Amino acid sequence: MTRISRRSLIMLALLLLAVPAAAQGTDKVQRLTVPITDPARPITVHVSLISGSIVMEAHEGKQVMIEVVPEDDGETKERSGGMRVIPNRSLGLTVEEEDNEVSIGSDYSSRIDKLVIKVPRKTSVSASNVNDGDISVRGLEGELELNSVNGSITATDVAGSVVAHTTNGEVKVSFTSIQAGKSMSFVSFNGDVDVTFPSNLKADLHLTAGQGDIYTDFEFDLVPTETETKSERSGKKYRVELDQDVRARIAGGGAEMHFKTWNGSIYIRKQAR
Question: pTM for this one?
Fold first, then answer.
């Protein structure tokens, strides 16, 4: 580890130790500033929450700024056997930085309602959450990998490439520009998939909309496909499954773009000029 990155970790540790004192005031939001090893280079942020929303926004600074919004205590719980309740406000959050990579993670004890993370525009992101929150990204330029189990995914005014998968929620993405030749994927099990591309998009589309429809305002050519057959035998039972996705080509074709939803529709929009 270089001297600079080691110094960044030490500074971050001091910041983390200082947070509880600040949290004793009326403002329950806790704030961290993460120094970056080399601010002249793009950075990568990995963030993973068990519970809570993730909001990431571009800013003009060279550091990563984090706001931790804890869960609301809500109504005071009933006493147990006449004893008073001591509020459990464990955040269970860990933040590390090394060589321009920032890792933010929570454990099962965390009681976080929302993380608001402000980063330099040229930042690649890997973000995931499980329960009680959505993922929202705005204004970033880089490779974005966004995964949720029980939340929607929104990426607004982003540049580069996106992989966005969720089980329960919609996927909505709008690009200012895309990385040429880079494959992308947009998947939801229960929700619409709605993506806006620049008007000069060149792509090969792979489309599956189980219970919904597919819409676009791009000119396209359909590509003939063969039905995929899957068969298996289990004891006396024999099962055959026939599946066929839709393939279309925009502007002569280009990078592969995968769109899939089972209970929703797919919208592929052209950016308004």
Answer: 0.82
Residue 35's pLDDT band, with cuts at 50, 70 and 90, is very high
What are the pLDDT digits (tens) for 115-154? 999 999 999 999 999 988 999 999 999 999 999 999 999 9
Q: Which residues pair with 189 in a beta bridge?
A: none
